[in-house]
Amino acid sequence: MWAHERHSRIVALLNERQRLTTETISAELGVSKETIRRDLIELELSGKLSRVHGGAIPQSVPIEPSYIEREELHRPEKRAIARAAATLIQPGMSCFIDAGSTTQALAQVLLARTDIQIITNSVSIASDLAGNPALDVVLLGGRIAQEMPATYGDQTVAEIGRYHLDLAIVSPVGIDARAGAMDYLWHEAAVARAMLEHARQRILLADRSKLGQTSRMQICAASAVDVLVTDAPESDKIVRQLQTGGVKSVLHAEPPAERGANPSGNAAGR
To answer: Model confidence over 143-193: pLDDT tens digits?
Structure first.
């Protein structure tokens, strides 16, 4: 394959998927990673993409903060959301949990629970929960993502399809009344979408900063969300918009102490 053909193929793949690793491009095009690295340098110099650690993104796509950075954002709110979400998981239930900083906070709460089956693509969540023998924890197979310790890809999605669980709990990049729940990376969205499709109840975790926000890839429509767990108050304008847009129920987490809040979270239906 000539260089200009590789360059055209790389740009087309980026337009489709929004982010690619050097390894993925190498496998898709059947050439060495060293060749792909040189191609990415040339494409970046020509203004056709932006290189990031381990791969590339289209030049017009803003770079999402790293997973480590996201872990540090809104920590008290994520812990409050995790505590509220845990009340939806009853003994004997089975649930999907996707990879994310908010779902990681949920895993810390679930460490003290018993008699729950948890199927996740998050290496960190599976590792944390494996310390409790009273929990049945399954780590989905697949390729390991570089930007987050999680599995993804066709194998992961295929394994999800073998199950039909009580709950799917996912944490999107944003949720908007018109655009729905969204993610930044196509492979993260594919995993979350598959989990939601194979569960009886769909639960989304989103702190206040994610409400009304959109991203690149849709996970599901607002009307597909059974429960939104958030730290935003019932009176929040965007919460009301999401309910009008189809979100069936909102569970309001107890706000962090520094925001001085009502000690009891409550659910508000449409």
So the answer is: 988 678 899 999 999 999 999 999 999 999 999 999 999 998 888 999 999
**Pair (32, 151) in one structural domain:** no
Q: Which amino acid is at 150?
A: A
Choosing from 33, 57, 81, the residue where a domain stops is 57
Structural domain ending residue among the three candidates 57, 80, 97: 57
Q: Which residue matches tokens 């003290």? A: 112
231 with 113: CB under 8 angstroms? no
Give the whole-angstrom CA distance, residue 250 versus residue 230.
7
DSSP code at position 61: S
Helix (H) or strand (E) holding 151: strand 151-152
Residue 4, classified by CB atoms within 10 Å of its CB into exposed (0-12), middle (13-18) or buried (19+), is exposed
Identify the domain containing residue 257 by its residue range.
68-269
* 87 and 185 within one domain: yes
Average pLDDT value for residue range 15-41: 90
DSSP class of residue 208 equals G
Taking the CA atoms of residue 156, residue 158, residue 159 and residue 162 in that order, the dihedral angle to the nearest 10 degrees is: 160
Q: Do residues 228 and 175 lie in contact, with contact meaning Cβ atoms separated by under 8 Å? A: yes
Does residue 127 lie in a domain region? yes
Please give the tally of structural domains in the chain.
2
